[in-house]
Specification:
mainly alpha
């Protein structure tokens, strides 16, 4: 691992909205513990393994961020709505920041570089500060021209907080406060940390199948928790590939979902791995293959 170069935070402004929101969701998650019962835990895990793989890894990441496959527009909107239930913030910012991360991975311009900020910076601390990129619509919108022109994504981004809470009445009707507390704050807190581990752990620990220019690595336990996102070195080697698990032991749940969608005709133009030596004959093709946008 290369020597870390710490980011100078003295000129950065605190993002009080994020600090309040992240702190509140963790306080509520702790407050959910006295409401524990086995059914509430079951609801938490059910929603965790539905909303996170479908809404975040399948949709926000592989479909919207990297266009690893295509689906009909109505189905894309449906999947993005499920993603909004994750409580991970506006979809437009999520995708724009992720594309920026790939363009400048583990450089000083990476918004959550573990190489320049350390583990905790990339895990969560970077969210506690304003980023010039994030505050300027003209800067981040140029990374998402394919999404920015769709009003529905502006709607999901504007009302993302209310959408994330929209299942609260149903949960209360089905199981009272235990279902609400474990189905929303506890589940959201767990989901956030799993997503953050993809930013932090997989750029600090693990093994590498490909010699990429960044510090990305494969971490098996992150892959299991995040439905395949932990095979991160594989992903950075070919960002637009729909398959993240390359070795036989690298189980990739999200890829299995994409295969199912492809089998029933909902997913098309699915990007599969390319054999670099056999199928890429010049530098221009390689640049085109790894291009995020």
């Amino acid at each position: 691992m290369k020597k870390l170069r710490q980011i100078d935070k003295r000129n950065l402004r605190y993002h009080y909205g994020n600090i309040f929101g992240i702190t509140l969701i963790h306080i509520l998650a702790i407050a959910a513990i006295p409401f524990f019962n086995w059914k509430a835990l079951g609801v938490c895990l059910f929603l965790f393994f539905i909303i996170s793989p479908i809404g975040v890894t399948l949709t926000y990441h592989r479909l919207l961020s990297h266009r690893s496959f295509k689906v009909p527009r109505w189905f894309e909107y449906t999947l993005a709505t499920i993603g909004a239930l994750s409580g991970q913030g506006p979809v437009l910012i999520w995708v724009a920041e992720h594309r920026l991360h790939h363009n400048f991975s583990d450089t000083i311009k990476d918004p959550h570089s573990a190489h320049h900020g350390g583990f905790w910076w990339s895990h969560v601390v970077h969210l506690f500060y304003h980023k010039a990129f994030e505050d300027d619509v003209k800067q981040w919108s140029r990374y998402i021209p394919d999404l920015f022109r769709h009003q529905y994504y502006h709607f999901l981004s504007k009302y993302n907080f209310l959408i994330a809470l929209s299942i609260a009445p149903l949960l209360y009707f089905l199981g009272g406060w235990p279902f609400v507390m474990w189905g929303i704050p506890m589940r959201v807190a767990l989901m956030l940390h799993v997503t953050w581990f993809v930013n932090s752990a997989t750029h600090r620990f693990g093994y590498r199948n490909f010699e990429t220019k960044d510090d990305s690595s494969n971490v098996w336990w992150v892959a299991l928790l995040s439905a395949g996102e932990g095979w991160h070195n594989n992903h950075h080697a070919q960002a637009n590939c729909a398959i993240h698990g390359r070795m036989w032991w690298e189980f990739d749940l999200t890829w299995q979902m994409i295969r199912c969608l492809e089998a029933i005709g909902l997913a098309t133009d699915v990007k599969r791995p390319v054999q670099f030596q056999d199928e890429i004959n010049n530098k221009e093709q390689l640049v085109e293959l790894l291009k995020v946008v």
